[in-house]
Amino acid sequence: MASLDPSLIERVDHRPRHTFDGDAYRHLGPGYDLLSGEGARIHGGRWNPPGSFPALYLGLSPDVVAAEFFRLAERSARQPQDLLPRRLCRYRVRLQDVLDLRETETRSAVGLTETDLRADDATLCRSVGEAAHHVGFEGLLAPSATRLGDVLVVFHDRMGADSSIELLDQEMWESLPPRPIA
Question: pLDDT tens-digit profile of 108-117?
Fold first, then answer.
């Protein structure tokens, strides 16, 4: 992991802390742990660098998750049907300290633009996510890189006693879900 920018840490730490209490969704292949963020810890994601910390990536609607699924296939240079079957899981998530990057003022304060949120190079987003994790946020909300809806990223190792993630239900995608339009 690269060293964190003290200025970014300070700017992130001074952002408002929000709660989140609602449903969120995730797609994953059979055999994967439904609540694990270890894949993101190992390989990284938009909001955490490879080899950093566990992060559970969730969409705030099934359409966001479907759009992220098609984006995954495209970025992996694979046909979407080659990634099937998948499970669509619905969770009830309660977090006490969330950085809300859906707010333009917050994005600006931490040095992110709309373009950064969707760029193939996630370096700036990872830096912000790493700073949020460092100062104790339990997760962050952000616009999806797909331009459709929002994502919630949960930092398992920062969750407090009053926070929780509960699997509510799941369904299997044996065939491709409808492709959402952004």
Answer: 999 999 999 9
C-alpha count within 13 angstroms, C-beta hemisphere, residue 25? 21
- In this structure, are residues 29 and 85 in contact, taking their beta carbons and an 8 Å threshold? yes
Domain that holds residue 60: 6-173
Query: Could you tell me if residue 181 is inside a domain?
Result: no
3-state SS, 13-28, equals HCCCCEEEEEEEEEEE
Which helix (H) or strand (E) element contains residue 46?
A: none
Total domain count, the chain: 1
Phi, psi of 150 (to 5 degrees): -125, 160
Phi/psi for 108 (5° steps) reads -60, -40
Burial label for 56, CB within 10 Å (0-12, 13-18, 19+), is buried
Radius of gyration of the chain from its Cα atoms, rounded to whole angstroms? 16
Report the interhelical angle of 6-13 vs 123-134 (nearest 10°). Answer: 60
pLDDT in tens, 19-30: 999 999 999 999
